[in-house]
Amino acid sequence: MGLGSGVIARNPVEDLQRIAFLLERASEPTYRVRAFRNAAAAASSIPAEELTERAEAGTLRELSGIGEVTARCITESLHGEEPVYLRRLEATGGAPVAEGGAALRAALRGDCHTHSDWSDGGSPILEMALTARALGHEYLVLTDHSPRLRVANGLSADRLERQLDVVAELNAELAPFRILTGIEVDILDDGSLDQKPTLLGRLDLVVASVHSGLRMPASDMTPRMVAAIANPNTDVLGHCTGRMVMGSRRRPASEFDADIVFAACERFGVAVEVNCRPERLDPPKRLLRLAVEAGCVTSIDTDAHAPGQLDWLPYGCERAAACGVPVERIVNSWSADELLAWTATHGFRP
C-alpha cells in the first residue's frame, strides 16, 4: 500500500528528533546524534509532498543530510509505523530511578545549569527551551561559558549582552515558560569571577565553577573557592571537585577543605550543585553528605550541552536522595519567582 492510500502518517521530523534526544540521553557519540539531527533538519526543509514522493521512489538519500538509516526511519514514519530504531531506543533507553530519586525528580521545576550553541553546546537556545518545556520544566536557566574558557567559545561581555536581548525575545514567544538569564562563570586563580561585576549583577542566576588549575594544592584551592563563594554575584557553586569519572578525560577530584568551603556556601547562601553529567557525578556522595550536614542549599542540574542531556536529572536525583538532600532545600524545586527572589536577596544585586 502506498503512502497516499489512507495511511495515517507519523511526523518523521519529530521521530528523528526523538531518536537524537534518546541518543544524547544515553551519552552516545556526537556523530551519531548529529546524523539524526541533520536528517531532521533536511526533512523539515522540503515540502511534505516531496518528502513522501521521495520516500516512495527510494530517493531520500539524494538529499544532503539523509543516509540509509535515517531514510529508513523517515519511510517507516510516513507509513504510520514507529521507526524500528526509535522503538528499540524507547524500549532500552532509560533505567528506572530509585523511589527517593523519582520523588525528587518529580519535585524539580527547572534546570539551573545548561548550555547552548552560543558557547560549547550543540543546539540553539530555542531548541533547548522547547525540549525543557516538553520535559515538564517551568523554566530553564541558560548558563553559557564566560570569556576565559576560549575552548568552549566563552561569551565576551558584548556577546552576553546580545544574548540577553535574544532571551527576552524568546520569552515573549514561550510564555508562560521562562528562560532565565545566567552564566557559568570561571573562578579565576585568585577567586575573582571571569566577567564584569555589573553585567553579572544583571543576570538572573550565576553558576561559578573552577575549570583551570584543578591540581593546585588545597592550601590555594580552598581560599580561591571561598573568595568566589563570598562574591555577592555567585548563586551556585558548579561541579565543585572538577572530577571526571568516565571517558577519555578522566581526572581525580580537586583537593580543598570541604568543611571550610561548605561552611562558606551556607554562610553566603550559595547552592552546592549536584551535577548530573554521568562523567562528573559531582560532588562525590561523601562530600554531598557533608554539604547537607553543613546546612547548604543545593541545585540539581544537568549541565546539559544538548537537548537530550536535559533528561539527565534522574542521575543527580538518585544520588541526592541517597545522601538525604531535603527537597525543600533544592533551589530548582522552587518556582521561577521563588528562585529569583532567592538570587536577589541572598547576595547583593546592584
Q: Could you describe the 3D structure shown?
A:
By secondary structure, the protein is an alpha/beta fold. It has 2 domains: 12-92, DNA polymerase, domain 1 (Orthogonal Bundle), CATH 1.10.150.110; 99-345, Metal-dependent hydrolases (TIM Barrel), CATH 3.20.20. The chain has helices spanning 12-25, 30-44, 48-57, 68-78, 84-92, 99-107, 125-134, 157-174, 197-200, 218-230, 258-268, 285-293, 313-322, 336-345; strands at residues 110-114, 139-142, 178-186, 205-209, 236-237, 271-275, 298-301. Helix 7 links the parallel strand 1 (110-114) and strand 2. Helix 1 (12-25) runs antiparallel to helix 2 (30-44) and helix 6 (99-107) crosses helix 13. The radius of gyration is 22 Å and the shape is elongated. The N and C termini lie far apart (67 Å).
What's the CATH class of the largest domain, please?
Alpha Beta
Strand order of the largest sheet: 1-2-3-4-5-6-7
Beta strands, count = 7
Let me know the largest β-sheet.
Answer: 7 strands, parallel
Average pLDDT reading:
93
Low-confidence stretches: none
SSE pattern:
HHHHHHEHEHEHEHEHEHEHH
Q: Tell me, what's the shape?
A: elongated
Instruction: Tell me what portion of residues adopts beta-strand conformation.
Output: 5-15%
CATH topology of the largest domain: TIM Barrel
Q: CATH homologous superfamily name of the largest domain? A: Metal-dependent hydrolases
Tally of individual domains: 2
So how many helices?
A: 14
Structural class computed from helices and strand pairing: alpha/beta
CA-CA gap between termini: 67 Å
CATH structural architecture of the largest domain: Alpha-Beta Barrel
